[in-house]
Amino acid sequence: MPSSPAADSLSLTQPPLTDISLAEKSTLAVIGGGFLALLVAASDADAWRARLSLYAALTLISGGTLAWAWYKFGRKPAGVQQDNLWLRGSTSRGALAWVTAVVLTGFYVLLYWYSSPDDKGNFGLLNGLVHTLDPSSQALRQRPADQWFLYGTFYTLAILLMGGRALWKYRQSPYQLIRTGSVMFFQLAFAFLLPGLLLFFQQPEFYFTYFWPLKYDYLFPGTIDYLVKDGQALGVFMVFWGAVMSFLATPVLTYFYGKRWYCSWVCGCGGLAETAGDPYRQLSDKSRAAWRWEVRIIYPVLGLIILVTAAMWLNQVLHGALLGAAADGLYRFYGFFIGAVFSGVVGVGFYPIMGSRVWCRFGCPMAAYLGLLQKHFSRFRITTNGGQCISCGNCSNVCEMGIDVKQYAQRGEPIIRASCVGCGMCSTACPRGVLNLENGPRDGRYQSSTLIHADSLRILS
């Protein structure tokens, strides 16, 4: 039976899939053994054996992942490799991708709604895993582990291990190396260790790298009252820090560097997307319809959290006389649908199906806030040189925010989009050096490189 023209075209443009070597199979088997040991740790009733299984699991998963990353990327020439992305089931919404999505989504469902502790300290279906981390939690926080310490441990480990993979994969780019190192550092030091140490010293748990409106309750009256109770200087500083970072530092830093200073260098959500979500970045929808849905959803979410914050403060000022329980109900509504369902279950669970920045692109109020500043007030842009573009499409393929970068590059137009997180992957993937991340003056920010070149020639003549 003769092959179709589409199949012939595909065979001419895509290199054939190669068999996985024995060495790579071995590293993947080690990782698989680690996940099996994790299941044993979750189900074993004996505390000592469960902890031993957990330590074995973390050792196997960590060692196997780093060994696989070195074997997969460290032995090859440096550079972005995009071969066969759309032929592998794991990276093209195939069966393996759907299985991964179901597992991730299931874990988040268990975490958010089936792991709340009872009066005996039982954490439901995750109870075995939670209590295996009791010694670590006691050492860091002076208290037993809970479901959020389990989640923070797994979250941080994912960023560190997949960050190691990214360091091997993008080692030819100093920008990517520093950026990846930055998200790994901020997650480990500021989002995991520092909050635990604050609890160790009997201080309020606080995340210095999360600000309103992403960490929406940090400017709520109840949270502020909790932080400044008894006039603690550290609590007062935390409130001051949150307010300054939200309303002063964020506009200033975004003016100079765009939203990349936060979304691609500091934020834990972005850190997970850039490391653990890197294999799925090509899955982001580049269609105009997807962009319309992005605008329809993300800005109403920003408006909603502004409304919720205003309602909470109004209720506080009026001592509940006007809104009563309605303010608390509005807060719970936002926390459930946006804080849990959207940012957690959908935002991470749908990585293998919709790409790694689903939450950042469609739901994050911080991304919406930063995006408005970036589009209308920032010096940041990605400049393009249309004369050098060969229309290979590498730039569009790696854009996790759904921007069809190639269309801008072909016309030599600067990329000034509210959604762009400045990850720089389009520039890293470009074989011709067409794309450049710049923080130039605002004059001429929207001019194409062709017009700028023409203006330069006119001035010279």
TrEMBL record:
Domain called 4Fe-4S ferredoxin-type: residue spans: 380-408, 412-440
GO CC terms of this entry: plasma membrane
GO MF, one example: 4 iron, 4 sulfur cluster binding
Iron as UniProt keyword: yes
Cross-referenced Pfam families: Fer4_10, Fer4_5
Database matches in InterPro entries: 4Fe4S_Fe-S-bd (IPR017896), 4Fe4S_Fe_S_CS (IPR017900), Electron_Trans/Redox (IPR051684)
Keywords: 4Fe-4S, Electron transport, Iron, Iron-sulfur, Membrane, Metal-binding, Transmembrane, Transmembrane helix, Transport
PANTHER family: FERREDOXIN-TYPE PROTEIN NAPH
Name this protein carries in UniProt: 4Fe-4S binding protein
Organism: Hymenobacter elongatus
Species lineage: Bacteria, Pseudomonadati, Bacteroidota, Cytophagia, Cytophagales
